[in-house]
């Protein structure tokens, strides 16, 4: 067996071992599930990728300037509010970020998820998506 083939095989084996050791992925500061109204309105729960937004914006952008309370489920958000440019709609307007015609990008949670923080915390666990 050539050295090149042996090195390639070793590399593949190392990647497989690394993937098995890592296990399921969790959000570093957790995803937020919003299901206060979603399923009652006939849509899937919202999965809000908090860390994805946090690496782009300071906390005050959403929690001060947009009015989000610092508690999962603490906001009374409706799609009408979002369409009126409030809460998520302030940025998700096809100018700053993609617009509201992509419902599945937010409403991606499995039915039955409770509002709260998931992944990486005490209440965390796999199975959000």
Give an overview in words:
- It contains 5 helices and 3 strands.
- It is mostly helical and 129 residues long.
- The chain is globular and about 30 Å long.
Q: Tell me, what is the CATH class of the domain at 31-118?
A: Alpha Beta
Annotated CATH architecture of the domain at 31-118: Alpha-Beta Complex
By secondary-structure content and strand pairing, the structural class works out as mainly alpha
CATH superfamily of the domain at 31-118: Cytochrome C3
Give the percentage of residues in beta strands. Answer: 5-15%
CATH topology of the domain at 31-118, by name, is Cytochrome C3
Topology at a glance:
Blueprint (H helix, E strand, L loop, with lengths): L2 H20 L8 E4 L11 E3 L1 H5 L4 H7 L13 H5 L19 H4 L9 E3 L11
Antiparallel strand pairs: 1-2, 1-3
Summarize the structure.
The chain is mainly alpha-helical. 32% of the residues lie in helices and 8% in strands. It has a domain at 31-118: Cytochrome C3 (Alpha-Beta Complex), CATH 3.90.10.
Features:
disordered C terminus; Cytochrome C3; single chain; 129 residues; three-stranded antiparallel β-sheet; mainly alpha
């Amino acid at each position: 067996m050539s050295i090149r083939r042996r090195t390639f095989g070793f590399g593949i084996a190392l990647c497989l071992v690394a993937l098995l050791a890592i296990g399921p992925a969790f959000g570093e500061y957790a995803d937020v599930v919003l299901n206060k109204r979603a399923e009652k309105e006939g849509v899937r729960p919202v999965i809000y990728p908090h860390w994805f937004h946090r690496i782009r914006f300071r906390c005050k952008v959403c929690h001060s300037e947009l009015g989000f309370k610092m508690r999962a489920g603490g906001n009374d958000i409706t799609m009408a509010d979002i369409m009126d440019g409030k809460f998520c709609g302030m940025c998700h307007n096809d100018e700053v970020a993609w617009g509201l015609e992509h419902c599945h990008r937010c409403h991606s949670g499995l039915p039955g998820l409770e509002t709260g923080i998931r992944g990486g915390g005490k209440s965390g666990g796999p199975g959000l998506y």
